[in-house]
């Protein structure tokens, strides 16, 4: 058993008959009253995010997990197929297990959390950013850059991201996977 002082991002816990992954946490010590930990928990089975507050010293049941590197192979319906990079075994996961499936392109290496009790995959951690090619966007209008103007662009995976006006079709852009936002243009 762990306590609230052990809470950290990425920790998997058993709570309300489900397994949740801590995505955000904040230790709060108010001037009056006892300390507590405010958390944002994401269910690894349904993908639902809940807010929860644990009182200081509260016992939590930690789920032991292992992380393994897997390469994304292909998507078929609502299933995503991955191959272990060391022993080449393949697994398939439901789309709900992925945070940003629309940013995942074939060949991308991700980290998959696996429950050590039953060897079932829990969730997929994407790399912090991915580089994708713009397949469709409106041409930028010259001289329309007085403000931070953006336009919609469709990427090679089908994801839509707002990009600056100077981005054209065929450009490669770096996208932040946590928020799904444009980061920078990549020069070749």
Give an overview of the whole structure.
By secondary structure, the chain is an all-beta fold. It has three domains: 2-62, Roll (SH3 type barrels), CATH 2.30.30; 65-125, OB fold (Dihydrolipoamide Acetyltransferase, E2P) (Beta Barrel); 129-186, Nucleic acid-binding proteins (OB fold (Dihydrolipoamide Acetyltransferase, E2P)). It is built from no helices and 16 strands. The protein has strands at residues 2-3, 12-15, 18-28, 36-43, 49-55, 59-62, 65-76, 79-84, 90-94, 109-115, 121-125, 129-137, 150-155, 160-164, 172-176, 181-186. A hairpin with a 2-residue loop joins strand 2 (12-15) and strand 3 (18-28). The mean pLDDT is 85. Pathway: Protein biosynthesis; polypeptide chain elongation. Belongs to the elongation factor P family. One of its GO terms (biological process) is peptide biosynthetic process.
């Amino acid at each position: 058993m762990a306590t609230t002082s052990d809470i950290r991002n990425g920790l998997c816990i058993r709570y309300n008959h489900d397994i949740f992954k801590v995505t955000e946490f904040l230790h709060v010590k108010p001037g009056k009253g006892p300390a507590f930990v405010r958390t944002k928990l994401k269910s690894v089975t349904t993908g639902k995010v809940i807010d929860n507050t644990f009182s200081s010293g509260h016992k939590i049941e930690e789920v032991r997990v292992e992380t393994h590197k897997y390469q994304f192979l292909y998507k078929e319906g609502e299933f995503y197929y991955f191959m272990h990079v060391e022993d080449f075994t393949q697994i398939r996961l439901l789309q709900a297990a992925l945070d940003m499936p629309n940013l995942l392109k074939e060949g991308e290496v991700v980290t998959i959390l696996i429950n050590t009790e039953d060897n079932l995959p829990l969730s997929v951690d994407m790399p912090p950013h991915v580089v994708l090619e713009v397949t469709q966007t409106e041409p930028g209008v010259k001289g329309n850059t007085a403000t931070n103007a953006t336009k919609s662009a469709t990427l090679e995976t089908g994801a839509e991201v707002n990009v600056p006006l100077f981005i054209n079709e065929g450009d490669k852009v770096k996208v932040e996977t946590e928020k799904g936002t444009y980061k920078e243009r990549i020069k070749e």
